[in-house]
Amino acid sequence: MGNGYFMLVSEPVGFGLKIIAPVDGGEKVRIGEATNYLSQNKLNCDPSVLKNAIDQNQDTVVHLGNVPCPAVRLTYNLSVEEGGMSATVRLYPASQTAEKMSVQEFIKELEAKQIRYGIKEERIREAFANQEYCTDIVVAEGKAVRQGTDAKIEYFFNTDVKAKPTVKEDGSVDFFNLNTINNCHTGDILAKLTPADLGDSGISVQGTTVKPKIVKNALLKYGNNVIMSEDKRVLTAKVNGHVTLVDEKVFVSNVLQLENVDISTGNIEYEGSVTVTGNVQSNFSVKAKGNIIVNGLVEGAFLEAEGDIIIARGMAGMSKGELKAGGNIVAKFLESTKATAGGYIAAESILHSTAIAGGDINVDGKRGFISGGRACATRMISAKTIGSPMGTSTIVEVGADPVVKFNLAQAQKQAAELSKDIKKLDPVITSFVNKRKQGVEINKKQLQYLASILQAREQKLMEYKKVSKELGILQEMIEMQTNAQVIVKDEIYPGAKIVIEDVSMAVQRSMQYCKFVKLHGDVKMVGL
Fold this sequence. Notes:
The protein is α/β, with parallel strands linked by helices. It has a 21-stranded mixed sheet that branches. Strands 7-11-16-15 form a 4-stranded antiparallel sheet, with no helix packed on it. A hairpin with a 4-residue loop joins strand 1 (5-10) and strand 2 (15-20). Helix 5 runs antiparallel to helix 6 (444-480). The two termini are 71 Å apart.
């Protein structure tokens, strides 16, 4: 297969452009390529005549003039691929009256055009020998870049802490099989690091170094009871216990097991997880860095865990008990209690309590009611019954994470105070600047005072920028918390109030099997 091409040839009278037809299915001469060639050599030809000659698809000569054939040496078009990894030429033959160009001359011309690396001399010789004109010929190839890969950390335990209790066939909730504890033993491999592969640089046909894309590095982070290997690529457990991932850091915690929390133990504060096989009596506190599991009953006590709080028999808070969990709260029931969870809250009933969840609130099981008090969740609250036939005042609120809303309000207040402080300092600085402009002499003590003012302003400005950045993040978090809803699987009674984000609705009549959503700026009831 060979492409068609053209060349200047002598005729009995004058000269012309010979059109050589393609062979074996090659490409015909491109009329634009031919006209450009003539134009570059200051030769004229009627485009229609030239097109007609090409379309004949046979060797033919288009007469161009009655003067001797000009001497035009081999010419070419050079193109370099974006990125500089290859150079391609299209050769146009010398006229019959011109001196032939050698391969070495051609290579020197490439080098003069900054093509210095990966020149394919053998391919060029082949093209010259076979008269491969009007054909794309790769005359130089660079060394390709080998892209690297990001570092990767593989964890050998469940890092998803969103497991929820299972509802049994009889409607009760299994509070013991939550799959939230990752048990481990001494010597267990907890995590492995595959380091970043930086890749290899390439070389363009111009001889310049082409670097691979920047890759992300990673480090294994670990805390208590974890051993890192000498090559810093493997983490293993130092003791028996359970493993957790907090802020990308691997921890192994021992578990403190107690029969009861009462006068015999006093208040408990522990770095790991705490399991109480019996009860937690009123007025005592349990604080744990991990989870708190109580197999019995919790009375008017204070429980705080950075992980989950699980209470098998429930909590009778006596209007003074409080639960605070960075993770989830799961209890048989919550009565006269304040419960705050960073994750979800799950119970069979919530009575006269304040329940606040960063995730969902699910009140399922045989009873499944929320009656009295206030329940607040970020995305969803689901219950069989809300309120009571007696018209008990019950507030159910979904929308922005209450913790985020509180933090946003605090950040807004702090930003306003910092802005006010900065504005108080500005007139003092301006006064000094004006005095200097007026030529007023400023003594050493005054200069020291000015320096302290400038330093104080700079410090306040740095704090303001930090708070402003936090404000932006918090506002984005609130904007992302959409599609909030309240689901009623059985009945909701008058006296209940539904709040979704910034709008609310007082329930005026009993409704069944429905859900409440924010629609067109109002709280609307729709069927399940």
